[in-house]
Amino acid sequence: MDKILIVDDSAIQAARLKSILEEDYEITIAQTAEDGLSFASSQDFSLILLDVVMPGMDGFMLLKRLQEEIITRSIPVILITSLSDIQNEQRGFTLGAVDYIAKPFHPVIVQARVNTHIKLYRYRKQVEHQSMTDQLTGIANRRRHDLYSVTKWKEAARLKIPFTICMFDIDHFKAYNDTFGHPAGDKVIIAVAKTLSKFMRRTTDFVARYGGEEFVAIIMGGDARINYEYMKQIRKGIEELQIPHAPSAGEWVTVSIGGVTVLPVDSSQYGTYLNIADTMLYDAKRYGRNQVVWCGDEMKQWRQTDDE
Ligand SMILES: [Mg+2]
């Protein structure tokens, strides 16, 4: 059932809207714009019904905030208003509202408008999902990563959960393609993607094809040591696929892995730590490939070769 958020300072008006829609949708009510913003960024709504006139932050201000946030930007907003003058309607549309519902409510009209926008939203989500899936491997693509990472980074900062970013790169992949051809190379990429996905067991574990023969994973929870050990298992898991490599490159296809675990704070940037993970990956390559290099506690570098 799709979820709708009603943001309205009038409890009576919110209850009336709820009674019109609750048969077909799961309804949440926020009585202030501030609550509305926090609900919208922490839950999955398909539509927001937003009252324009509220004390403190009004509907227009909230709409602007929703549009600025990457997490809430795509949720359609219908403004509820009795301000029937043209200027206010224009302002609402300029700020990104998809529609208006005027007070007093006519149940049939409210239902029809809501149904239409929910349908459009679902369709858009479906298209979006397709555009965020890597065609070759069926896992998430880089675009999906870009969106997911920012959302989860904020969530981890809010909930104070450690956040792990990990980069993977298939070793000597060019040599593989040069020896066996690109169709065979594609099969290797698919096999590696499948194995990475198999290891990403929890619902918040995320892996995407970042480009070419490169992958990125995001893991919420667990300290640096736990995730570092986990990546060592994944490295082993890929080697144990025993995909014969090009003679010049080594016996089996392997991956190099670089990662970092961090406790995000509000002011910190995901991109900074993605770069650190990338630097660790670069070092893993430099130190001889088929190994895990980690930016451990107190920024000390951990290398698999040191552990063994
Ligand atoms: Mg009001």
Write the layout of secondary structure elements.
Blueprint: E1 3-7, H1 11-21, E2 26-30, H2 33-42, E3 47-51, H3 59-68, E4 77-81, H4 86-95, E5 99-102, H5 107-131, H6 142-159, E6 163-170, H7 173-180, H8 182-199, E7 206-211, E8 214-220, H9 224-239, E9 255-262, H10 270-286, E10 292-295, E11 301-303, H11 304-307
Parallel strand pairs: 1-2, 1-3, 3-4, 4-5, 9-10
Antiparallel strand pairs: 6-8, 6-9, 7-8, 10-11
Helix pairs in contact: 2-3, 7-8
This protein binds magnesium ion (MG).
Magnesium ion binds at residues 8-10, 51, 53-54.
Quick description:
The chain is of the alpha/beta class and 308 residues long.
Question: Which descriptor suits the 3D outline?
Answer: elongated
Q: Please report which band the strand proportion falls in: under 5%, 5-15%, 15-25%, 25-35%, 35-45% or over 45%.
A: 15-25%
Tell me the Rg in angstroms. 24 Å
Number of DSSP-assigned strands: 11
Which sheet architecture does the biggest sheet show? 6 strands, mixed
For this structure, the quaternary state is: single chain
Descriptors:
alpha/beta; Nucleotide_cyclase; Alpha-Beta Plaits; elongated; binds magnesium ion; single chain; 19% strand; five-stranded parallel sheet; Sig_transdc_resp-reg_receiver; 11 helices; Stage 0 sporulation protein A homolog; phosphoprotein; Rossmann fold; 308 residues
